[in-house]
Specification:
- The protein is an alpha/beta fold.
- It has two domains: about 250 residues, Alpha-Beta Barrel (TIM Barrel); about 90 residues, Chorismate mutase (Chorismate Mutase Domain, subunit A, Up-down Bundle), CATH 1.20.59.
- About 50% of the residues lie in helices and about 10% in strands.
- The protein has 14 helices and eight strands.
- Strand 3, helix 4 and strand 4 form a beta-alpha-beta unit.
- Helix 4 packs parallel to helix 6.
- The structure holds phosphoenolpyruvate and manganese (II) ion.
């Protein structure tokens, strides 16, 4: 469990609905665009909160950096017209003040801000004494403690209504994703803070439309509490993130196509079947650990032998051979290269650790 108070782990008002659906344009562009998006989103009957970026922290200068404060009354008007609560991103204390002045219902902290404790602290200070739900996006880089720290700073300012957004992690070079999901980090965050809603942002993970639904489904299968999806009345001509936005109507279709799974079932028959499978898994995990412990004992013997003969622990050729052999075997058994590589790497490092102890004792 994390370091939030019990109240913070429990109390979620606007963010409590599950699944929580947040949607709206990457950026507020014009009064007309904001209003039309709001009307069409409300018409889907599937959206709980409308989002829009007012200030856009862009990685590179020269692209659209947000319409600024003049967009806030547009959002306020859209809310009045449709009844949809509104959410915007804040990155400074002044932006928090401006947002609250225009009755913004939910604030979120963007990935480029969560990386910076000074900025998060400035936001936290501006939030002292205020009651507003705050969502914290994961930082750009895969650093779980920064994400935790961001949440702690906001929690310490007295904000009780907290949520997390998983938007993926940036990496160098081309990948299938704009931001790699690294699901295990979001899962670890869910484990540490079980009462805090975890919302998935497939738009910024994918960076493109064709795999949005697949990623959203994966999040729902992993028991996420909701989705934040960028939508636009004219996606191809959006002023930012054009490639990943969809119309409100396409959003509706996507939400209808998603299979919303229950996180648990009272049905005792189902429970007893599941329990049997879980026992099998536990049994297999025990066996795996036993085999690994035996493997490490052999590694220790090798360590002793290398010590006697004054040979280095790491033998790069041998390590290559082990890895190639494991990948080839794993492939035949339906295990991915990526998994086998990570697994063998962990086993190899543990083996080195054991040999190191023997050789340097
Ligand atoms: C956004 O939500 O439009 C945004 C800028 O996201 P992120 O902070 O995840 O990059
Ligand atoms: Mn965006």
């Amino acid at each position: 469990m994390g370091t939030l108070t019990e109240q913070q782990q429990k109390v979620n008002t606007l963010l409590k609905k599950a699944p929580l659906i947040i949607s709206g344009p990457c950026s507020a562009e014009t009064e007309e665009q904001v209003m039309q998006t709001a009307i069409r989103l409300a018409a889907t009957g599937k959206v709980d909160i409308m989002r829009a970026g007012i200030w856009k922290p862009r990685t590179r200068p020269g692209s659209f950096e947000g319409i600024g404060t003049k967009g806030l009354p547009w959002m306020q008007q859209a809310k009045k017209e449709t009844g949809l609560p509104i959410a915007i991103e804040v990155a400074t204390g002044k932006q928090v003040e401006d947002a609250l002045h225009f009755d913004v219902d939910v604030l979120w902290i963007g990935a480029r801000t969560t990386v910076n404790p000074f900025s998060v602290q400035e936001i936290a200070d501006a939030l002292r004494g205020v009651k507003v739900p705050v969502l914290i996006k994961n930082p750009l880089n895969p650093d779980l403690e920064l994400w935790v720290g961001g949440m702690e700073r906001i929690a310490k300012a007295g904000i009780e209504d907290l949520g997390l957004i998983h938007r993926g992690f940036s990496s160098y070079g081309n990948t299938d994703f704009r931001n790699a999901p690294m699901w295990h980090l979001a899962i670890e965050m869910k484990r540490r803070f079980p009462g805090i809603p975890m919302i998935n942002d497939p738009s910024h993970i994918c960076g493109r439309r064709d795999i949005l639904q697949e990623v959203a489904q994966q999040a729902i299968d992993l028991d996420f509490d909701g989705l934040i999806v960028e939508s636009h009345i004219d996606p191809d001509n959006a002023w930012s993130d054009a490639k990943q936005q969809i119309t409100p109507e396409v959003l509706k279709e996507m939400l209808e196509a998603i299979r919303w799974r229950k996180d648990d079932v009272a049905n005792t028959d189902f429970q007893s079947h599941l329990e049997k499978f879980r026992q099998q898994i536990n049994q297999l995990d025990d066996e795996l650990l036993q085999v690994l412990a035996t493997r490490m004992k052999v590694a220790q013997k090798i360590g002793e032998y290398k010590k006697e003969n004054d040979i280095t622990i790491l033998q790069t050729n041998r390590w290559n051979e082990i890895l190639e052999r494991a990948i080839a075997k794993g492939n035949k058994m339906g295990l991915t290269d990526d998994f086998v590589t990570k697994y063998m790497d962990a086993v190899h490092m543990e083996s080195i650790h054991h040999q190191n102890k023997v050789m340097n004792s």
